[in-house]
Automatic annotation (TrEMBL):
Its cofactor is pyridoxal 5'-phosphate. It is an enzyme of class 2 (transferase). GO terms for biological process: alpha-amino acid metabolic process. Homodimer. This is 2-aminoadipate transaminase. The keyword Transferase applies. Keywords: Aminotransferase, Pyridoxal phosphate, Transferase. It holds the Pfam family Aminotran_1_2. Belongs to the class-I pyridoxal-phosphate-dependent aminotransferase family. It comes from Kutzneria kofuensis. Its EC number is 2.6.1.-. InterPro entries: Aminotransferase_I/II_large, Class-I_PLP-dep_aminotransf, PyrdxlP-dep_Trfase, PyrdxlP-dep_Trfase_major, PyrdxlP-dep_Trfase_small. Residues 46-387 form the Aminotransferase class I/classII large domain.
Length: 398
């Protein structure tokens, strides 16, 4: 027998399978699952989507069932540009926008297009583990900048820039309802970050996966709207349409987007045309605008249920963020190795994501992420009770 593990690329030994473990629990029904950032299936507009799909197959098969260009179907990109004009207050030029196969595809395309081995990429600490592992596959040097209640610490970033011999290639940030912390970057920080990166010639990668899922109507300018010359915004419709079609976008400087499109030719070539046309029709008919208030209300209720359960059962055991949107709360459990806690919690049929994988540079085993997006309020209460018992059990035996 040939040991194929000896033939793997060197990068394979340093790329952890963190997302695989989360996705493996996507269909689990025998446990209370706080792990994945999955949208609730009850929100999927199956009747509307089914009708759209049927009409496209009947009337538009030559486009909807065919390959598309790597940058995306022209009419779909036009609908996305209209959407960005409404949400961000700026309509991108045609050459500034492309369709991607979800957010992680955009991250991979940016890494493939921008990074040589050893190039510095700055990420928030903690940060989305898919981005951390996605960048790591291209052998950069990852540097972490801390978060606080106002998001990425721009002063800390400025200090880091003074220490580095050359500026980083990229700064990756999730300014709205960040994954995993749930925190949101203040308007002042957004302006300061754009100006700092413009001054140093650094490309900002703005991930807006959760920006449409705020629990209030407070206006928050996107980084791309503040600095279209230094920002590539990447987004996904997985959270607000449905993840089965794997669709997102990248919008930014035309020269960068052109290279992302070339990179896509050598990955999956193009996003699925049927999904693109379904999304386009969904947007143009106003269905997303009708859907978002329902989604926000559901997730707001579940976030409130989680916060209340933590207040009742985790007082003195941990501290946590109170989400104002998105899917997540971030817990600090002092003195507890959350990798070990995950094993104990699974014995009580509870799953969550330990925090260590969300750190690119620091070592931190005392945090964990809870996702409330796909759990009923009664299960949230019971899951927090079980998790608190697991923390106490682990502390008693340590």
């Amino acid at each position: 027998m040939i040991d194929w593990t000896t033939r793997l690329a060197r990068r394979a030994s340093t790329t952890p399978d963190l997302i695989g473990g989360i996705l493996a629990l996507a269909g689990a029904r025998d446990l209370i699952n706080f792990s994945g950032g999955f949208p609730d299936p009850s929100l999927f507009a199956t009747d509307v989507v089914g009708d759209i799909a049927r009409k496209l197959i009947e009337n538009d098969a030559a486009v909807a069932l065919q390959y598309s260009s790597s940058e995306g179907i022209a009419s779909t990109r036009e609908a996305l540009a209209d959407r960005l004009a409404a949400t961000d207050g700026r309509r991108p030029a045609d050459a500034e926008l492309m369709v991607t196969s979800g957010g992680i595809d955009a991250i991979t395309l940016i890494a493939k297009s921008m990074l040589d081995p050893g190039d510095v990429v700055v990420v928030e600490e903690p940060s989305y583990l898919g981005a951390v592992s996605g960048f790591m596959a291209f052998d950069p040097t990852l540097r972490g900048v801390p978060l606080d209640g106002d998001g990425l610490d721009v002063d800390a970033l400025a200090t880091l820039l003074r220490e580095l011999p050359t500026p980083p290639k990229l700064v990756y940030t999730i300014p709205d309802f960040q994954n995993p912390s749930g925190r949101t970057m203040s308007v002042e920080r957004r302006t300061a970050l754009v100006e700092l990166c413009r001054q140093h010639g650094i490309l900002i990668v703005e991930d807006v996966a959760y920006s449409q899922l705020g629990f209030d109507d407070a206006p928050r300018p996107s980084l791309w709207s503040l600095g279209p010359d230094v920002v590539v915004q990447i987004g996904t419709f997985s959270k607000v349409f449905f993840p089965g079609v794997r669709l997102g976008w990248a919008v930014g400087p035309a020269a960068v987007v052109a290279q992302l499109s070339i990179a896509k030719q050598n990955s999956d070539q193009c996003a699925g045309a049927l999904g693109q046309r379904m999304l386009e029709e969904y947007l143009r008919a106003g269905h997303l605008d009708e859907h978002l208030p329902l989604a926000r209300a559901l997730y707001r209720s579940r976030a409130s249920a989680l916060t209340g359960a933590l207040e009742r059962h985790f007082d003195g055991l941990a501290t946590w963020t109170v989400p104002q949107g998105g899917f997540f709360s971030w817990l600090h459990v002092p003195g507890v190795d959350t990798m070990a806690l995950a094993v104990v919690a699974r014995e009580s049929r509870v799953a969550f994501v330990p925090g260590s994988g969300f750190f690119a540079e620091s070592r931190d085993n005392e945090h964990l992420r809870l996702s409330y997006s796909r759990i009923s309020e009664s299960d949230i209460e019971e899951g927090v009770v079980r998790l608190a018992a697991a923390v106490r059990s682990l502390r008693e035996t340590s």
